[in-house]
Amino acid sequence: MADEFLTKPGKLNWRFPRTFWYANTAELFERAAFYGMFITLKVYLTDRVRFTDVEAGFVSACFASVIYLLPTFMGAMADKIGFRRALLLAFGLLTAGYALLGAFQVKATVVVALAVIMLGGAIVKPVISGTVAKCSDAEHRARAFSIFYGVVNIGAFMGKSAAAPLRQQFGLEYINFYAAAMAACAFFVVLFFYRDVESGGAGRSLEDVWNGLVKVVRHFRFMCLILIVAGFWFIQGQLYATMTQYMLRLRGDGARPEWLANINPLVVVILVIPITHLLRKWKPENAIAIGLFIIPFSALTIALTPVLEVFTGSNIMLFANVALHPLTLMVSVGIAFQGLAECFLSPKFLEYASKQAPKGEEGLYLGYQHLTTFFAWLFGFIASGYLLDAFCPDPTTLDPAAEQQRLDAIANGTSMPEVYAHAHYIWLVFAGVGAAAFVAMLIFKFVTDAIDRRRARANATSV
Fold first, then answer.
1. Owning domain of residue 43
2. What predicted TM-score, i.e. pTM, was given to this entire model?
3. Is the four-CA dihedral 81, 125, 92, 194 of positive or negative sign?
4. Residue 148 pLDDT
């Protein structure tokens, strides 16, 4: 029975059943696999599979967005077949998908491989979080999920850290083989150690899930909030949609954007608890607005790289023996802004979203809060493809003279080819999206507050 998996009530402790730890171990491997692959996915699609930037934008947009939409449906399926079977199926699919992605660099095969990975990943998300919930009681649930989120960040750090040396020393395809190995490790953890958490076949049917989604989408106020906050994740998603390709094209294969991406979770881990504590008495909408105010500066900082380079040249001396290119510094600062903005927005978003839901339906609406990421990454990755193609194109599309000038600029700090002269415009566009989201949030708050006051007066009058 599920009850035997719960920690004993009483004094708070950090003891959880073995299944809890095995589930988290599997999650560690799965996140290392996913983020190792994902941070270089678009580079792989253009450099190895030979998709154009625009094509890679559409392919990665479908993958990145739908993988956030499917888990609710896959969770319903997992409830029916059991968590252990669902995880074995998921990690089997992920192992096969990652291996297929690395082994066959053919467009049609790569699309199939990404679809397989998408299905496997969509199964893992609800089952692991469901296991964490079932292996903890109400007293210990916060601690259980704090461990879970810590494991997620450690896994992501592992994957991104491994990606750079694998790319530089062996080749992009070996990142996918690494991901397959990590997924296989998760499979064997579940196969040999994971004890099933009984669901008794309970859970919503696929029809119920679909009807819930339709109901949420039809709620105008909630969907406005979802789309506004999607502006935040639109920029945050450029870590994966744009940043890696942008840096490799302007700084060469010796750059390590995969490592810079770890600045975001590092900032969140360090600052989210103290910032959340400081904001504990704030209205959620005010904290969200602060996050939306900060996020445009993430993109604007990167866009200002050419201005900084005018004053510093191609190298900035931080310490006696440490020199950074201005782009590396500005990308690092921009990513740090992303992490800071996330500390303000994420903890308060769910609280505010729950208040927008009709009374008694908070759980239903919070279950679909991931629609913010769905919309953000669908449109964000597509926009990235067009913007890269226009302002920071694939070097293989350059004529030999322009490509040689690019290589000389990377090696010697000389001028880049004219085709890259306005590469920073990409980040100005993203900054504009963030600014629009901030303004939209202010308008949303003003309008909804006015509506709520009018309703309150009407109710008072009728009484």
1. 17-195
2. 0.91
3. negative
4. 83
